[in-house]
């Protein structure tokens, strides 16, 4: 049996914190699908196609990782993909409270799919896509926060 997992998120943009979770999941599970979920309540900085491209570029060194986009419920998508689990990153206690609610609902929707939480490395515990966008908007360095391809994409976005 192949352990296929889903690592969901909006990845707007992908950060070193995201990449840390993806790389660590790729070491543990046979296959990781990074699933870009379309959140209708958010207005993303990057288009879906741009986010997919950035994720493909920063994960191209991982043979067992694929990038996909989807909408709808995570549990429906996981079932369609024959996934056995969901992998989520945690930065702080506040993340845990939110994730616990989501995981409880997901378990209600499909109790056969487990959720695994991975604590982010300490150096990324403060990091979020929102913080990165805010810093980049004012042309401050995000070199230590995102891969170089993402940094360049942010510079282009905010040069306009």
Automatic annotation (TrEMBL):
Catalytic reaction list: (R)-4'-phosphopantetheine + ATP + H(+) = 3'-dephospho-CoA + diphosphate
Protein residues bound to ATP: 10-11, 18, 89-91, 99, 124-130
SUPFAM superfamilies xrefs: Nucleotidylyl transferase
Pathway as given in its UniProt record: Cofactor biosynthesis; coenzyme A biosynthesis; CoA from (R)-pantothenate: step 4/5
Keyword tags: ATP-binding, Coenzyme A biosynthesis, Cytoplasm, Magnesium, Nucleotide-binding, Nucleotidyltransferase, Transferase
Cellular compartment(s): Cytoplasm
UniProt cross-references to HAMAP family, sorted A to Z: PPAT_bact
Name of the protein this chain belongs to: Phosphopantetheine adenylyltransferase
Record organism: Salirhabdus euzebyi
Gene coding for it: coaD
């Amino acid at each position: 049996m192949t352990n296929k997992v889903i690592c969901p998120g909006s990845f707007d943009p992908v950060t070193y914190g995201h990449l840390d979770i993806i790389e660590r999941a790729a070491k543990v599970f046979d296959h990781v699908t990074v699933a870009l979920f379309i959140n209708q309540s958010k207005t993303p900085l990057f288009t879906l196609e741009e986010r997919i491209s950035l994720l493909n570029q920063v994960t191209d060194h991982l043979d067992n990782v694929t990038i996909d986009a989807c909408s709808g419920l995570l549990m429906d998508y996981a079932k369609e993909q024959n996934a056995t689990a969901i992998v989520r990153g945690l930065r702080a206690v506040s993340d845990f409270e939110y994730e616990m609610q989501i995981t409880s609902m997901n378990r209600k929707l499909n109790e056969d799919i487990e959720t695994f939480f991975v604590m982010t490395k300490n150096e990324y515990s403060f990091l979020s896509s929102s913080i990165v966008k805010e810093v980049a908007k004012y042309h401050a360095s995000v070199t230590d926060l995102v891969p170089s391809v993402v940094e360049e994409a942010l510079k282009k976005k905010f040069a306009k």
